[in-house]
Design brief:
Number of strands: 52
Distance between the termini: 56 Å
Helix content: under 10%
Largest sheet: 22 strands, antiparallel, barrel
Radius of gyration: 32 Å
Number of helices: 11
C-alpha cells in the first residue's frame, strides 16, 4: 500500500513539475494602453480594467494609461468599465513572451442611453484600429500629428527627421520648422505643453534635431488656436511630448558617419583647433584678455603706449592654416529608459540620452551688391567670391524622471545642449570698380541651452474627471561670440596684373573700423522663468458631456547683451616702415614685435548701443469649454487674455532715446467647430485672434557690421507687436486608419506685421538694414493634404499596400498695404517672408521583412528676404534699392533602413539634398516674378553639395 501511495505521490509531483515547467516555458508579457472618451478625445482616469477568467486587474492612472504586467502567454478577454460609460469587452488580446501588447480603448458616454447596463463587445484588431481612428477625428482644433507607434516603425533618429512625416510641415536644415509657408516668427514650439526657448539668439526658432525620436510619445501640430495654447501662434504650434514611463527597459546605442560631395576629403582651412573644440568648447585664446579695460571710456583716456601694452595681451589669432583633409562627420547617441515598481505601489520612470555630433562643410559662394538702379543694370558696388569653411560640434543630453502613484503624477524633464561653430571665410573680388580685395573672416560661436520643466498632474475627482495640472520651468540660453576677426588686403585695380605691386592690409592710420581690421566680442545671456496652473472638469451641460478648462500662466524673460567692438590702427610715421608692415602676411601682421605706440595697436570703437538689457513679462489666463452641442456637432469656445510688458534699456547716441517700454493687453478669443458629416468625414471651422511679438534683437538699436552681406544691421525701438485674426475652414475624410484626404481654406488679417528692410536713403557704400511695421497685410490660401497607401490601386498587391504616399500642397496669396502712409516701401506687394506656394510629397515603404524606405520632396515658392526702398512716380513704384528675393529651391531626400540581428539592430542610409539645387538671392529688376540670369541682379548664390550618411544602431 505504501509503495503505491509513494508511486502516486511521485507521479502527481512529476505531473505538477511538468505543468509548472510548461507554464514557465511559456513565459509572460504585459498589456498596456490608454482609455479615451469617444466623443471628446479626453483621456479617462479611474477606468477599471479586468482580465476576465483570471484574478488580474488594474485601472487607468491620472493620465488615462493602464499597465498590467506578468500575464502568461495566451489569448485573453479584457473588460473596461467606468460609471456613466458603456462597459466594453475585447476578445483575442494575445500576450506573447517578453513582448508588450498595446491596446488603446475608446468608451462611449452618449446622452440618452443607460450605458452602464450595456456590454459592448469587440475584437483586439478592430478596437486597436478604432481607437487610433478616433484620435485622428476627435482633435478639437485643426491639427496633424504622428504617434509613437508610427515613429517606432520609421528609421528617424531625431525630431527634426520625424517632423518631415507630419502633413503640412516643412523642415529647414533638418531642424527648423515652417508651417503653411510661415517662418519662425509665426510658429510656437512646446515640449510637454511648456513653451520652448529659442535655440537661436536672433530668431524665434527651436532646433528640433536635439530630441531623439525614440523618446517621443507623440507630436501634434495645431494649425488653429485654442485658448490653452500660446497666443503667439499663427502658422501653427508644434507640441512634442516625450515618454514618461517606458513600457520596457530600453538601452540603445547608435553611431553614424557621413560625407558631402564638395567637402569630404577636400582641403580644409581655418583656425587652429583644440581638443575642447570637438566637444563644443571654445579656445581660451579667443577670450578678451582679463586685463583689458572694462569699458570704452576707461580705454580711450589711455595714451598710445598704454594702448599698445594692452594690445600685446591679445593672442595673435588672425592667422589661418590648412587643417588637413575634411573628415566624414560623426554622430554618436546613447539612450536609456526604464520603469520601476516601488514598494508603495508607485511607479518611477527614467529616460535619458546623450548625443554627440561634429561636422565640417565647404561651400563656394558668389556674393554681389549693386549701386542704385539709376546707374543701370549690373552696376556693381562689389563683386566677391567666397570660400566658406564651417566646423560644428555639439554635445547634448536629455534626462526625464517621472513618478506616478494612484491619482498623482510628477515629472522633471531636462534638455541641455552645447555647441560650437567655427567659421572661416576667404574672400576675393573687386570693390567699387577701384580696388582688388582679399578679405577674411574668422569667427567662433559657443552656444549653450538648458531647459528644465517640473510638471505635475492630480486627479481630484474621478467621477467628474476633475484634474489639476501645473508646471514650473527654467530656461537658459547663452551665445558667446569671442574674437570675431575681420581683415582686408587691397590694391588698386590698375595694378591687377602687376605682381610687383603687393596687396596691403587696409589698416587705417586715423579712426579704426571693425570691417577693415577689427575684432568683435559679444556675450548674450537669457534666462526664462515660467509657470502655469490648469484645472479641468467634466460637466453635464444642455444634456451632454462637456469639459471645462481654466488656467493661469506667467513667463518672465531677461536678456543681457554686451559687446566690445575693437579695431587696429597703424600709427607708423615712417613711410617705408608703414608699407612694410602693411604687406606682412596675415599670420605675422599682429605679431608682438609689430605692436607698439608707433606701429599697430587697438582702438576701442564700442558705442553706447552695443549693449542692452531686455525684459519680457507675460501674464495671463484663459477659459474654455468643449464638448458636443449635438450628436454630430462638437464645439470648443475659449478666451485667452495675455498682458505682455517689454522693456529694453540701452545706450543713447546723439541724445536719441533708444529705450523701449511697452505694455500690451490682448484679448484672444477662439472658436473651433467640428461637424461630423458621417463616421468618416468631418467639416471644421475655426476663428481665432493671435499675436506675433518682436524679438529683443529687432528692438535693440544695436548696430553690427555683417561681413557676409556688407550690411550694417540695426534694430528698431519703435516696433509694435503684430495682431492677427485667423479664419479656417477644412473638409477632412478618413478612409481608414492612418489615411487622410483634406481640403482647407484659410484667411489671416495682420495688423502691424514686422518686416526686414533696407533703411531708406542707404547707399551702396553705407547700407543699413533694420525692421519696420507695415500698417496691415493679409494672407489667404488653400491647402490640400493626402495620406494613403497605394493598395487603393490593387488590394491584392502586398507591395502596393506597403507603400504610403503623402502630399501637402498650399497656394497662398499675401499682400501688404502701405496706402495712406509716407513710407518709401512698395505698397501692395507680397508679405515679407511669405511664400506663394508650398509643396511637400513623400513616399514611404515598410515591409514585414524589416525594410523601411522613404523619399521626400520639398519646394517652397520665392519669398522676400529683405525689403528694398524707392519712390512712386506717376503712380508707379521706382526702386532706388530693389527688394531682395530668395528664389524657389527644390529639395529631395532619401532614406533606406534594414532591421538586422533579430530586429535588435538597424542599418540606415541617408541621402540628402540629392538635387543639389542652387540657393539664389536676387533683385527682380525685370519684374518677371522669377530669376532671370540676364535681366536680374544676383546678390548671392551657393551650392551646399549632396549629403550621404550611414548609421548603425543596436538595442540591448
Amino acid at each position: 500500500m505504501k509503495p503505491q501511495l509513494t508511486l502516486k505521490k511521485f507521479v502527481a509531483t512529476l505531473i505538477l513539475l511538468v505543468i509548472a515547467t510548461a507554464v514557465f516555458a511559456q513565459g509572460s508579457g504585459k498589456v498596456v494602453g490608454k482609455v479615451s472618451n469617444s466623443k471628446t478625445g479626453e483621456t479617462i482616469a479611474g477606468v477599471t480594467v479586468k482580465i476576465l477568467n483570471t484574478s488580474r486587474a488594474g485601472s487607468t492612472d491620472v493620465t488615462g494609461n493602464y499597465n498590467i504586467p506578468g500575464l502568461s502567454v495566451g489569448k485573453y478577454i479584457l473588460e473596461f468599465s467606468y460609471v456613466g460609460y458603456g462597459t466594453k469587452q475585447i476578445s483575442d488580446v494575445e500576450i506573447k513572451n517578453n513582448e508588450i501588447t498595446s491596446l488603446d480603448i475608446i468608451l462611449d458616454n452618449s446622452e440618452g442611453n443607460v450605458l452602464e447596463q450595456v456590454v459592448i463587445r469587440g475584437t483586439y484588431k478592430k478596437e486597436s484600429i478604432g481607437a487610433l481612428y478616433a484620435q485622428q477625428k476627435n482633435s478639437i482644433s485643426i491639427s496633424d500629428g504622428i504617434s509613437a507607434e508610427i515613429i517606432k516603425r520609421t528609421p528617424d533618429k531625431n525630431t527634426g527627421e520625424v517632423l518631415k512625416r507630419v502633413s503640412g510641415a516643412s523642415v529647414q536644415d533638418n531642424k527648423f520648422i515652417v508651417i503653411r509657408g510661415l517662418s519662425d516668427r509665426y510658429n510656437a514650439a512646446l515640449l510637454n505643453n511648456s513653451p520652448l526657448p529659442s535655440t537661436e539668439p536672433d530668431r524665434k526658432a527651436f532646433s528640433f534635431d536635439i530630441i531623439p525620436s525614440s523618446l517621443i510619445d507623440n507630436i501634434v501640430i495645431s494649425k488653429t488656436a485654442t485658448a490653452d495654447l500660446p497666443g503667439d501662434l499663427t502658422g501653427g504650434a508644434v507640441n512634442v511630448k516625450t515618454k514618461d514611463f517606458p513600457d520596457r527597459k530600453t538601452m540603445e546605442i547608435s553611431v553614424g558617419l557621413g560625407g558631402n560631395t564638395q567637402t569630404t576629403f577636400k582641403d580644409f582651412y581655418g583656425s587652429k583647433r583644440t581638443v575642447g573644440n570637438y566637444f563644443g568648447i571654445k579656445n581660451p585664446d579667443n577670450n578678451l584678455p582679463s586685463t583689458f579695460p572694462k569699458d570704452r571710456a576707461s580705454y580711450t583716456d589711455l595714451n598710445f603706449e598704454q594702448k599698445a601694452e594692452h594690445t600685446k595681451a591679445f593672442k595673435n589669432t588672425f592667422g589661418y592654416e590648412k587643417l588637413g583633409k575634411s573628415l566624414p562627420y560623426q554622430n554618436l547617441q546613447f539612450i536609456y529608459g526604464n520603469s520601476y515598481r516601488l514598494n508603495n505601489e508607485g511607479k518611477l520612470g527614467v529616460i535619458a540620452s546623450v548625443t554627440y555630433r561634429n561636422s565640417e562643410s565647404i561651400s563656394n559662394e558668389v556674393r554681389n551688391d549693386f549701386n542704385g538702379t539709376d546707374q543701370g543694370l549690373n552696376s556693381y558696388y562689389f563683386k566677391y567670391e567666397d570660400t566658406y569653411y564651417r566646423f560644428n560640434s555639439s554635445i547634448g543630453a536629455l534626462a526625464n524622471v517621472s513618478y506616478l502613484k494612484d491619482n498623482f503624477k510628477i515629472s522633471l524633464k531636462n534638455i541641455y545642449n552645447q555647441s560650437l561653430e567655427q567659421n572661416f571665410i576667404n574672400r576675393t573680388g573687386i570693390l567699387d570698380n577701384e580696388s582688388l580685395r582679399k578679405s577674411t573672416l574668422l569667427e567662433v560661436h559657443q552656444k549653450r541651452m538648458l531647459n528644465s520643466v517640473l510638471d505635475g498632474e492630480y486627479l481630484m475627482n474621478a467621477d467628474k474627471q476633475t484634474k489639476l495640472s501645473w508646471n514650473l520651468s527654467y530656461s537658459n540660453m547663452n551665445d558667446d561670440t569671442p574674437d570675431l576677426r575681420q581683415l582686408a588686403y587691397t590694391k588698386n585695380i590698375a595694378y591687377k596684373d602687376d605682381p610687383s605691386v603687393a596687396f596691403q592690409a587696409a589698416i587705417p592710420s586715423g579712426s579704426a573700423t571693425s570691417e577693415q581690421a577689427g575684432k568683435f566680442y559679444s556675450n548674450l545671456n537669457e534666462n526664462i522663468y515660467s509657470g502655469a496652473l490648469n484645472w479641468s472638469q467634466g460637466v453635464n451641460l444642455l444634456g451632454s458631456a462637456k469639459t471645462v478648462k481654466i488656467g493661469v500662466f506667467k513667463q518672465y524673460k531677461n536678456r543681457e547683451m554686451n559687446a566690445r567692438v575693437l579695431g587696429f590702427v597703424n600709427k607708423s610715421e615712417d613711410y617705408t616702415e608703414f608699407n612694410r608692415l602693411l604687406q606682412l602676411p596675415q599670420d605675422q601682421l599682429f605679431a608682438e614685435e609689430n605692436i607698439a605706440k608707433d606701429k599697430f595697436f587697438i582702438d576701442d570703437i564700442t558705442n553706447p548701443t552695443n549693449s542692452f538689457e531686455g525684459i519680457g513679462d507675460l501674464n495671463g489666463g484663459y477659459g474654455m469649454l468643449s464638448g458636443n452641442v449635438s450628436e454630430k456637432l462638437k464645439a470648443t469656445v475659449g478666451l485667452r487674455v495675455e498682458n505682455y510688458i517689454e522693456k529694453l534699456k540701452t545706450g543713447s547716441i546723439s541724445g536719441v532715446d533708444n529705450n523701449v517700454n511697452n505694455s500690451y493687453t490682448d484679448l484672444l478669443p477662439s472658436l473651433n467647430l467640428t461637424y461630423e458629416l458621417n463616421p468618416k468625414t468631418n467639416l471644421r471651422f475655426s476663428f481665432s485672434n493671435t499675436v506675433a511679438r518682436a524679438q529683443f534683437r529687432e528692438l535693440a538699436a544695436f548696430s553690427f557690421y555683417d561681413f557676409v552681406t556688407g550690411n550694417v544691421k540695426i534694430g528698431n525701438p519703435n516696433l509694435k507687436r503684430t495682431r492677427i485674426s485667423n479664419l479656417d475652414l477644412r473638409y477632412e475624410f478618413y478612409p481608414s486608419l492612418g489615411k487622410l484626404f483634406s481640403v482647407s481654406a484659410f484667411y489671416k488679417n495682420l495688423t502691424d506685421p514686422i518686416e526686414s528692410n533696407i533703411i531708406a536713403g542707404s547707399t551702396s557704400a553705407s547700407k543699413s538694414m533694420s525692421f519696420t511695421n507695415a500698417p496691415k497685410a493679409y494672407i489667404m490660401g488653400g491647402e490640400v493634404e493626402i495620406r494613403h497607401d497605394l493598395g487603393i490601386f490593387n488590394q491584392d498587391s502586398e507591395i502596393l499596400k506597403s507603400l504610403t504616399f503623402s502630399a501637402n500642397a498650399s497656394l497662398i496669396k499675401s499682400e501688404v498695404n502701405f496706402e495712406g502712409t509716407e513710407s518709401l516701401l512698395e505698397n501692395k506687394r507680397s508679405l515679407y517672408g511669405q511664400s506663394p506656394y508650398l509643396l511637400n510629397t513623400g513616399l514611404q515603404y515598410s515591409s514585414k521583412g524589416g525594410w523601411e524606405s522613404s523619399i521626400f520632396f520639398n519646394r517652397i515658392g520665392r519669398r522676400i528676404d529683405i525689403v528694398g526702398f524707392g519712390n512712386y512716380v506717376n503712380g508707379e513704384f521706382k526702386d532706388e534699392y530693389a527688394t531682395i528675393y530668395e528664389a524657389p529651391r527644390s529639395m529631395l531626400d532619401f532614406q533606406l533602413a534594414k532591421k538586422i540581428i533579430a530586429n535588435k539592430a538597424e542599418l540606415k542610409f541617408n541621402a540628402g539634398n540629392i538635387l543639389n539645387s542652387k540657393v539664389v538671392f536676387y533683385q527682380d529688376i525685370d519684374k518677371s516674378g522669377k530669376y532671370n540670369i540676364d535681366s536680374d541682379q544676383l546678390i548671392n548664390s551657393v551650392k551646399y553639395g549632396r549629403n550621404f550618411s550611414l548609421s548603425f544602431s543596436y538595442k540591448f
